[in-house]
């Protein structure tokens, strides 16, 4: 059908009444065009994009289910994987010939999930992972009959988590990529083999949520808490899919019911995006949110934001795109959102404000250096003495010393004072004679003269001392003369 719902072409033959399994779309023969793969009971079909039959293959009387495309041969052309009701997992080449098969006690309805070069499916009691050679990688005992697994990075740890529904116990189970169970929770209603969960952001917080179909449509966060009131149709709800159906930039939930109806549910305030188109074009199975770079932002969100879906740090500012959007509220396409000349990673490291440029002109540590100048000098804006040499950063920067190295014992200007002593005495550490009086600062300190006063130096002190001594001597002589004169004046005359 065309996008507007009008018929583009149709295909039918004797066996197709009705089709009972999902479709898969991808370029299975390497001609650069997508083909359509589907099945009716034990017969598999491959059509080209114009509806013409390429080939068909009958698998005896064994029912086909769970069709998935994956490049298991690493030749850049996907193979066709599916389950047979005789407990066989099969991979076909693009021409319909068998590439590989393995006998395993499969849950027929659990379509294989292709993820991180693994084939994830289920046998009678375990969820298992195979490599592309169909060798067992791990298995986790669930003792449950599950639906098809889906996956997404649910907790933003840059790794996928796997989600399955248990038909037998009405539980949703979340596992790590190595098969470890993270959590499980019971859900209302009852599951069928078509109750496959879907994953998407339903409440505009960029964190993936779950759409779980049973006899009810349930919308939950990854902890199992309800986001919205459950929806009951009166029939079993099958294969929910999240996508922007009407092109308004807001995703809807599409699902079918056991009585053959198709419903579209509008979720208010949902994140604006179109994950379905992107998932289909990259051949991912229903329910999977692609995250090529494992940065926690699904590809469709990255396309909306304009970030690079193949790069965790689109603006090269040393901050993960997801952290910029969800933690720091900064622009993932700018390394300096507030234009304060201090990169975001540096502001994060020193706990500055990434969204307010006024902090560039503050001096957090009162060392005489503005925060933005601390960045240019690579000093710590929260420590007045970055190198712990007892000389403030601002003083060292002022005189061209290194604020990042302990140079307290250096004598930069060779005046017999260490740089630390220069700081304590207030002298200039790069000028040996701070007051220009002809004497080294160290000499003045040694002679107890003021190295900042040109009129107070060892020479002036000597002259002053000599003058003082001479003055004192003259004064003593004068005093002695006066005393002598007075004595002579009081001697009585001879008779």
Written description of the protein model:
- This protein is of the alpha+beta class.
- Helices cover 17% and strands 24% of the residues.
- It contains nine helices and 23 strands.
- The strands form six sheets. Strands 1-2-3-4 form a four-stranded antiparallel sheet, with no helix packed on it.
- The longest helix has 32 residues, at 458-489.
- It is rod-shaped and about 155 Å long.
- Residues 1-5 and 269-288 have low confidence and may be disordered.
Any chance you could write out the topology, listing elements then pairs?
Blueprint: E1 24-26, E2 35-40, E3 43-47, E4 53-58, E5 64-70, E6 79-84, E7 88-92, E8 98-103, E9 113-115, E10 118-122, E11 126-130, E12 136-141, E13 150-152, E14 161-166, E15 171-176, E16 181-186, E17 198-200, E18 209-213, E19 216-220, E20 231-232, E21 237-243, E22 252-257, E23 262-266, H1 275-281, H2 299-305, H3 321-326, H4 344-349, H5 371-377, H6 393-398, H7 419-425, H8 441-446, H9 458-489
Antiparallel strand pairs: 1-2, 2-3, 3-4, 5-6, 6-7, 7-8, 9-10, 10-11, 11-12, 13-14, 14-15, 15-16, 17-18, 18-19, 19-20, 21-22, 22-23
């Amino acid at each position: 059908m065309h996008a507007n719902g009008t018929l583009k072409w149709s295909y039918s033959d004797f066996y197709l009444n009705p089709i009972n399994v999902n479709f898969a779309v991808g370029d299975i023969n390497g001609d650069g065009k997508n083909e359509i793969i589907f099945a009716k009971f034990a017969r598999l079909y491959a059509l080209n994009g114009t509806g013409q039959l390429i080939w068909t293959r009958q698998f005896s009387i064994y029912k086909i289910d769970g069709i998935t495309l994956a490049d298991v041969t690493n030749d850049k052309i996907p193979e066709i994987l599916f389950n047979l009701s005789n407990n066989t997992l099969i991979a076909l080449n693009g021409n319909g010939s068998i590439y590989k098969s393995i006998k395993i006690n499969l849950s027929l309805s659990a379509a294989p999930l292709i993820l991180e070069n693994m084939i994830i499916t289920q046998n009678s009691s375990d969820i298992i992972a195979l490599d592309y050679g169909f060798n067992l990688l791990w298995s986790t005992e669930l003792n449950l009959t599950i639906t098809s697994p889906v996956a997404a990075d649910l907790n933003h740890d840059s790794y996928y988590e796997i989600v399955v529904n248990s038909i037998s116990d009405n539980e949703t189970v979340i596992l790590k990529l190595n098969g470890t169970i993270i959590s499980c929770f019971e859900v209302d209603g009852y599951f069928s083999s078509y109750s496959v969960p879907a994953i998407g952001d339903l409440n505009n917080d960029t964190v993936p949520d779950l759409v779980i179909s049973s006899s009810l449509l349930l919308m939950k966060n990854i902890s199992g808490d309800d986001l919205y009131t459950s929806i009951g149709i009166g029939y079993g709800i099958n294969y929910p899919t999240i996508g922007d159906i009407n092109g308004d930039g807001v995703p809807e939930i599409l699902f079918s019911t056991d009585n053959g109806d198709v419903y579209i549910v509008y979720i208010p305030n949902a994140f604006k995006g179109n994950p379905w188109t992107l998932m289909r074009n990259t051949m991912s199975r229903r329910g999977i949110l692609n995250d090529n770079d494992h940065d926690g932002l699904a590809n469709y969100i990255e396309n909306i934001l304009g970030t690079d879906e193949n790069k965790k740090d689109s603006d090269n500012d040393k901050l993960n795109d997801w952290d910029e959007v969800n933690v720091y509220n900064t622009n993932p396409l700018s390394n300096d959102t507030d234009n304060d000349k201090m990169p975001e990673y540096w502001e994060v490291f020193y706990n500055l404000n990434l969204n307010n440029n006024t902090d560039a002109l503050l001096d957090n540590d009162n060392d005489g250096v503005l925060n933005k100048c601390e960045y240019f000098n690579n000093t710590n804006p929260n420590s007045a003495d970055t190198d712990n040499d007892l000389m403030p950063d601002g003083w060292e920067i002022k005189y061209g010393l290194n604020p990042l190295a302990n140079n307290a014992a250096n004598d930069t200007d060779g005046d017999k004072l260490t740089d630390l002593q220069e700081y304590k005495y207030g002298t200039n550490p790069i000028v040996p004679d701070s007051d220009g009086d002809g004497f080294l600062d160290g000499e003045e300190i040694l002679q107890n003269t003021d190295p900042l006063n040109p009129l107070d130096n060892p020479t002036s002190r000597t002259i002053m001392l000599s003058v003082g001594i001479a003055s004192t001597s003259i004064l003593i002589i004068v005093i002695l003369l006066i005393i002598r004169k007075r004595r002579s004046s009081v001697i009585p005359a001879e008779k």
